[in-house]
Amino acid sequence: MKKTIAVVCAMKSETQPLIDRLTQLEDNSADGFEIYRGTLGDNTLLICISGVGMVNMAALVTYIAVKYSPDCFFNYGIIGGYGDVHKDSLVVIEDCININSTQFDAAPQGADISLTRARLVTFSENIDNAPVIYKSGAELVSVAAAVAGENVMYGRLGSGDVWNKEYDKVMLFYNEYGVCGEDMEGYAMYQVADRFNIPALSLKGVSNNEILGETYDYSVMEKLVAFAYNVLTEM
Predict the structure, then answer these.
(1) Which residues contact 185 (CB under 8 A, 6 or more apart)?
(2) Is 124 strand, coil or helix?
(3) Which one, of 159, 163, 197, lies nearest residue 75 by Cα?
């Protein structure tokens, strides 16, 4: 069955290797959004570049959902690894949590900022404050699993407009919330896709790990693009 797959990434450098592999390529950029349409096998791919950050991604995914009604959203990109998740790892994202949606308990002046008073919450009317965690589409995860090699991991993505390098903060998200790494766009894709009832999947490559002292290296992108391409050909 032919599908329309919306591939949404933060940066043009992430999408260019995939764009180069498509046939019948055309530029569909409009309304301030950079969008390319092409063919991969029987499927139509919309390659869409959001720019960095949650608002940029939310705006893009909303626009694509309304204008094109894709069968699914597909994201890939680099993340910073948490805990013992090593640089150069590939991760199939099973679900995603907002690591910026944080509540701090009251404290007097001079008490300093402490993570012992912090928790992740969802700020929404008439619900409890437990964080909302969005899941990847089960069928999409199954496709990725069928393609993945033994060295591919599965995990929870933490997402927010932040680049965390503090040991205690990273380990709080890792130990208390099961986050394997962080990016700056994923939660926005999942949240908007859920609103439109469109399944979504994210694949990530680990570029660095502050906890393990593994410095930033973008070269994992080459391996990640190859993995993403193989998954897309099976969708």
Answers:
(1) 8, 10, 50, 52, 53, 54, 56, 57, 75, 77, 159
(2) coil
(3) 159
Residue 158 CA to residue 162 CA, distance in Å, equals 10
Q: Are 113 and 106 in contact (CB under 8 A)?
A: no
Which pLDDT belongs to residue 42?
Answer: 94
pLDDT of the residue at 111: 72
CA angle at 134 for the pair 131 and 137, rounded to the nearest 5°: 165
Please give the structure tokens belonging to residue 141: 């995860």
Cβ atoms 191, 16 nearer than 8 A: no
Please give the model's pTM, rounded to 2 decimal places: 0.93
Determine the Cα–Cα distance for residues 152 and 138; give it in Å rounded to an integer.
17
Domains of the chain: 4-233 (3.40.50.1580)
Q: Does residue 101 contact residue 123 with C-beta atoms inside 8 Å?
A: yes
In sequence order, what are the residues at sequence separation of 6 or more whose Cβ sits closer than 8 angstroms to the Cβ of residue 40? 21, 22, 23, 232, 233
